[in-house]
């Protein structure tokens, strides 16, 4: 056991999997000698050499597209996109190629790759360094999507993602890369993709969130003093509706919290799923506390944009009072 | 020195058997053994028949859109002839001749254009399926070749694309990765003069497309893409460069599509008949047949025999493609993921996405029956 | 008045606006002499010349990115992407640049452009020629999105889109480009962006759809013999929740029909919006009849994928019976 | 002729005032009037001061991430000197010197890095805001220049980007559009040897980056990017080519960033101190000052005076930037669209996205008060 931050836990998972599986090769901008701009690949170049930890040219479509080729050839590439705001140039290769190969070849060619991407706001970064595009990729059949909210989950989920035979996006909530430490076992363990985690149990209301917002939710719950069940999605696609539905069938009320803009965000899908599964149990409309339908502002205003304890608290109160 | 030269280069064009029947024996002699030349000529006749029949299948409503390959057989065939079994061939949609030479069952191509993904399930040889998104496949080739280099298994990749495709950013990134990371890929641009209705000058206004490769410090060469000998020659050089030095090469093969862009296109809207007539004279089959006949390797009798053979073969291929059982709706789901999620299983079972169907226990209950929250 | 198909109505709108406004310039693949692969720009090259109707290189990011420059310089570019499946390479310029310029410059630079894109399935086309990505762009703040379902609306909406000072995606449902004709006034008229159209009124159930599916819905309603209100969204972003909510407040039941995959599709947003606005009126969960969470299959199976009269009919019955 | 040459070219490097003080009078004489040379030197001193203070603002927590410009002043300054008012300058983030010369208020740049979009609202001159997405801005330059050509107003565009940026597909598309559609853009690549920690050989392994332009049949040239005279010379040629022939030019300006990539970076992790030391000797200010002093246009006294002036100026700029009222939450909404939708108006008013807030009439009602469906 070691007391690790989330980013350290990611590095540990990478090291352990790379030692076991020679098919793993990392590629991305500045991941080599520099160890990545967040130091997630710190020391890996020195440990595994330049053949397995490859500084790529500054070209996200190139990183994604060559990773597809590497994967189809039977390797297990782990491409990194430096920030989620730079997934744009890789969008076509990711959604129209990686996500579709298995389906369009009816299983003939597969794309077992894990795309690592730091995600989300709250770190005082420049433009395009603070977005939350997970809903876009959830609307893209063929991808799996994972986003841990703790060091423990990060390691277990990353190992699952690497071993998954499908293309997986592993989103890393950069706001909590170093926000806190947790005991992370040295030994390998996996956390199944597709299973949400009930962070704390409660009877009055269900709260659903993922990534860095889980921390905000936990704080808001504590401040509210209410008896609230918090579900950390962990896997974003496929969504674990069973866990959510069981909870809402019990509580009858739900608040969903995410950083991305409201309209067509993941909150809409979950709220609709709840209506589908728990219509007769619902005592109040499901509420969404999320980003506004605007561009994520530059950092002077970013805290106005991100769901915080106050906004979450209001939603709790209103939903309970309904 | 206020002005100094920091880079100097030239690009060459290779031609061995030209449209007037000239054969350069210095470069060409012994390049392709006679038997192979005959076999490839016979193969092209089969491909021509395939193309003709595929066109007719579309016209008679038995197949969807189809892009004729006629006139462009040589670049992919010459490449396939040189490539090894372990190599990858990563193509677009005008490389039937090379793919069939490599061993891709012909009905797979028909199935694809019949709107059936099973045409893309290829176990027979290292080829990727038809790439509909222009420009998308070259990066995969770079990745596949990279894997070969990483594994040190001696395999390389060869990718095909049109003049239009070189306008896409993905072309640039594929070539740049290959050059800078020393990845053994051969890039073959089939410059057929047009990207649908767009003349290649709008895709690349440089004197040659070959010089695209200069941007990456890559070896580049232009070749008469209707000349099987020249194509084999440049492919031999390029594959050696890849295998021995892990270096990519950019080959511009100048050729022409003698048909419309696809069956959905009408090239008369934008293309001169004079231009077409000129290129019909440069048809690769004409010069190859003349060459073989001069060497007494071919005759009208053989031609007829082979045409009959081709007709029978293609009929059988069509029958195979048309006799395959219709795909089932389950197919939509079954290869979405390796391992279906419970939601997708539900959608597969019920063929429903609708909300009420999601939770069958709730369908029974109705508000009218007095539901209490 | 002329009796026009949807695609003819688009051509007419382009001609009329181009004659009025010299700032309009069209760019796209094969839109010149060839008149576009769907002939939407037929005759325009001959009429307005190669300076205003420009055959672009085969590069969607280039088309989108140069259109942004043209727009920022004060022109009114109308770029065309040949099929929605090829929006991928333009994704970054569209979502991270066009959509953001006004916001990131706090109004200093604007992007008044109209991106025309044929969309949707049902025409027996090859791979990547049949998708419905509207939800992805609706989740992108900064864009407006329009999709007509009739020749009349096509002209009026296209004129509005061209004159709108914001970047607008004008999706053209290719399945009904030539499916039927309608009287289209010669004179100019606009249809406001943001206003849905009530195709037919009804009391028992509200049906919401857009694009080519509206035709399927109308047929299903007729077959059902029920008293159903059909709303054609027309504008996809911003969604006209007022019209939808008023209708559902009246009917208490709703079925949403779209071609795109279910998860995180626009149906989820509308269903959630309905829960938000009509929670106390809802007599049944909102239903979604839409594409499966799979890649749109090649054409042999495409009709299995697309919502049809039968699937819509089932949803009507179940929702009414609930 | 089996092998013929179809393209031949060379790339030249222009250098007028080199790091050893050599001045090529044939090319350089009269190129920059003395007054202008002095003014530009003075300007660079201001920019250096700005850079230094910006760095300190970040370190003391008064500003976010900042990319030092130190060492790279010449390419953008030389370009801005040659460009006309009506032209567009489309930059990345290491072109402060050129932008300030052009008239961009210096506090705008500080505001940007202070996380305030108002820094991007520029009315003073035709420049686009700092481009964070590498490679994204060049297409805008091509579009802006295209508009000038369409309007026949004689304006052109000049765009700046790094060596790393030439790896992006968007660079390729921007250059290809410009070349094939005859659009008057000048592409200036500031090759500073590094893209964060990635050496430029991984971005472009060709002998020069200038040859990227050959792919498009574009005029291309390499220039000593720390030599103001050479930069002005190649910009004059390039802008003439654009204005007279609607032709783009690709300029590779070799230079070096003397600082870290940004304040978030530590270049010691990946960069040789020897390399840095070598480039410190090539600092553009050194050779320019020597040149001016030799011509008796500059002195230590003037230097001191200008340094003091720069310090005062930059202090005032910082004060301006820091004194601006904090932005309000409304700003998030107000320029999202020209004309807010009713939904956005609601979000703006309530600062809420939550469901119950959507329909205030429903907030009052509660299930507990006995709602009947
Ligand atoms: C990304 C993308 N954009 C547009 C298209 C539509 N399209 C299909 S083929 C084609 C022209 C391709 O030209 P070229 O690369 O020269 O190949 P050719 O058809 O001439 O063999 C276009 C524009 C597409 N399939 N993919
Ligand atoms: C599309 C994109 N990918 C990645 C980044 C992260 N990033 C910021 S600067 C930079 C390196 C840029 O190198 P270069 O173009 O040479 O410019 P320089 O910083 O050297 O001036 C990278 C990778 C980005 N901003 N945008
Ligand atoms: Mg072509
Ligand atoms: Mg650089």
Report on the biggest sheet of chain A. Answer: 5 strands, mixed
Name the helicity range of chain B: 40-55%
Number of strands of chain B: 8
| Percent helix range of chain A | 25-40%
Number of helices of chain B: 16
Any idea what the CATH superfamily of the largest domain in chain A is called?
Thiamin diphosphate (ThDP)-binding fold, Pyr/PP domains
Q: Give the structural class of chain A.
A: alpha/beta
Total helices of chain A: the number is 12
Rg over alpha carbons of chain A: 19 Å
CATH homologous superfamily heading of the largest domain in chain B: Thiamin diphosphate (ThDP)-binding fold, Pyr/PP domains
The pair of chains with the biggest contact is: C-D, 57 and 52 residues
Radius of gyration of chain B: 24 Å
Can you summarize this structure?
Chain A has 322 residues and is α/β, with parallel strands linked by helices. Chain A has helices at 6-20, 44-48, 60-72, 91-98, 101-104, 134-138, 151-163, 213-224, 241-251, 266-278, 302-305, 309-321; strands at residues 2-4, 24-28, 53-55, 76-80, 114-119, 144-146, 168-173, 182-184, 197-200, 205-209, 228-232, 235-237, 254-261, 287-291. With 373 residues, chain B is an alpha/beta fold.
Defining key terms:
heterotetramer; A: 322 residues; alpha/beta; Rossmann fold; 2 domains; five-stranded mixed sheet; four-stranded mixed sheet; 12 helices; globular; B: 373 residues; six-stranded parallel sheet; two-stranded antiparallel ribbon; 12% strand; binds thiamine diphosphate; binds magnesium ion
Describe the protein's topology:
The complex is a heterotetramer, with two copies of chain A (about 325 residues) and two copies of chain B (about 375 residues).
Chain A (H helix, E strand, L loop, with lengths): L1 E3 L1 H15 L3 E5 L15 H5 L4 E3 L4 H13 L3 E5 L10 H8 L2 H4 L9 E6 L14 H5 L5 E3 L4 H13 L4 E6 L8 E3 L12 E4 L4 E5 L3 H12 L3 E5 L2 E3 L3 H11 L2 E8 L4 H13 L8 E5 L10 H4 L3 H13 L1
Parallel strand pairs in A: 2-3, 2-4, 5-7, 6-7, 10-11, 10-13, 13-14
Antiparallel strand pairs in A: 1-8, 6-12, 9-11
Helix pairs in contact in A: 1-7, 3-4, 8-12, 9-10
Chain B lengths: L2 E12 L10 H4 L5 H26 L13 H10 L5 E3 L5 H7 L3 H8 L23 H15 L5 E6 L6 H12 L4 E7 L2 E2 L2 E2 H4 L15 E6 L3 H18 L3 E6 L18 H9 L2 H11 L5 H24 L6 H5 L7 H9 L4 H4 L1 H5 L9
Parallel strand pairs in B: 1-7, 2-3, 3-4, 4-8, 7-8
Antiparallel strand pairs in B: 5-6
Helix pairs in contact in B: 2-4, 2-11, 2-12, 3-4, 3-9, 5-12, 6-7
The structure holds thiamine diphosphate (TPP) (2 copies) and magnesium ion (2 copies).
The site of one magnesium ion has 6 residues of chain B, from strand 5.
């Amino acid at each position: 056991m070691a007391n690790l931050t989330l980013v350290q836990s990611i590095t540990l998972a990478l090291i352990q999997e790379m030692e076991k599986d020679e098919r793993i090769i990392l590629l991305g901008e500045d991941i080599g000698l520099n160890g990545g701009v967040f130091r997630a690949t710190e020391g890996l170049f020195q440990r595994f050499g330049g053949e397995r930890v490859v500084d790529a040219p500054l070209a996200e479509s190139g990183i994604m597209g060559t990773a597809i080729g590497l994967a189809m050839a039977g390797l297990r590439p782990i491409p990194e996109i430096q920030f989620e705001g730079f997934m744009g140039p890789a969008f076509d290769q990711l959604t129209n190629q990686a996500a579709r190969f298995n389906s369009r070849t009816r299983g003939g060619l597969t794309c077992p790759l894990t795309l690592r991407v730091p995600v989300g706001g709250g770190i005082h970064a420049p433009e395009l360094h603070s977005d939350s595009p997970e809903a876009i990729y959830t609307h893209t059949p063929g991808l799996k999507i994972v986003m841990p909210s703790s060091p423990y989950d990060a390691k277990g989920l990353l190992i699952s993602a690497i071993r998954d035979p499908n293309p997986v996006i592993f989103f890393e909530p950069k706001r909590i890369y170093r926000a806190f430490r947790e005991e992370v076992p040295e030994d390998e363990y996996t956390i199944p993709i597709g299973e949400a985690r009930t962070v704390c149990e409660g009877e009055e209301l269900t709260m659903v969130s993922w990534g860095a917002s889980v921390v905000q939710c936990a704080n808001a719950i504590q401040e509210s003093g209410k008896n609230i069940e918090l579900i950390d999605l962990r896997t974003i696609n496929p969504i674990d509706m069973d866990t959510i539905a069981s909870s809402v069938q019990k509580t009858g009320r739900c608040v969903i919290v995410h950083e991305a803009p409201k309209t067509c965000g993941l909150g809409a899908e979950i709220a609709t799923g709840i209506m589908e599964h728990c219509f007769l149990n619902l005592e109040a409309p499901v509420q969404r506390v999320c980003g506004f339908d605007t561009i994520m502002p530059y950092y002077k205003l970013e805290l106005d944009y991100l769901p915080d304890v106050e906004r979450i608290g209001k939603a709790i109160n209103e939903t309970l009072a309904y | 020195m206020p002005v100094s030269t920091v880079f100097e280069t030239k690009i060459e064009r290779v031609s061995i058997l030209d449209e007037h029947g000239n054969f350069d024996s210095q470069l060409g002699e012994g390049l392709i053994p006679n038997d192979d030349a005959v076999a490839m000529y016979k193969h092209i006749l089969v491909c021509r028949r395939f193309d003709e029949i595929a066109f007719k299948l579309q016209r008679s409503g038995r197949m969807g859109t189809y892009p004729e390959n006629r006139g462009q057989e040589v670049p992919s065939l010459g490449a396939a002839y040189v490539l090894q079994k372990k190599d990858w061939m990563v193509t677009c949609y005008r490389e039937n001749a090379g793919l069939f030479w490599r061993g891709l069952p012909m009905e797979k191509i028909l199935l694809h254009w019949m709107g059936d993904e099973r045409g893309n399930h290829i176990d027979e040889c290292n080829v990727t399926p038809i790439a509909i998104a222009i420009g998308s496949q070259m990066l995969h080739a770079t990745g596949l070749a990279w894997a070969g280099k990483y594994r040190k298994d001696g395999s390389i990749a060869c990718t095909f694309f049109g003049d239009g495709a070189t306008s896409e950013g993905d072309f640039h990134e594929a070539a740049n990765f290959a050059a800078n990371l020393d990845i053994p890929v051969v890039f073959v641009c089939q410059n057929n003069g047009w990207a649908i209705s767009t003349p290649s000058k709008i895709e690349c206004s440089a004197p040659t497309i070959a010089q695209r490769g200069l941007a990456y410090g890559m070896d580049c060469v232009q070749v008469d893409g209707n000349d099987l000998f020249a194509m084999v020659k440049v492919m031999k050089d390029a594959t050696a460069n890849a295998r021995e030095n892990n270096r990519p090469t950019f080959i511009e093969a100048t050729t022409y599509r003698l048909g419309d862009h696809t069956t959905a296109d009408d090239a008369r809207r934008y293309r001169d008949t004079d231009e077409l007539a000129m290129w019909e004279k440069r048809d690769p089959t004409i010069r190859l047949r003349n060459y073989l006949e001069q060497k007494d390797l071919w005759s009208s009798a053989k031609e007829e025999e082979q045409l009959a053979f081709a007709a029978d073969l293609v009929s059988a291929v069509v029958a195979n493609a048309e006799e395959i059982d219709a795909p089932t709706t389950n197919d939509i789901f079954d290869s979405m993921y390796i391992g279906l999620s419970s939601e997708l299983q539900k959608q597969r079972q019920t063929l429903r996405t609708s909300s009420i169907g999601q939770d069958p226990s709730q369908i029974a209950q109705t508000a009218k029956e007095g539901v209490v929250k």
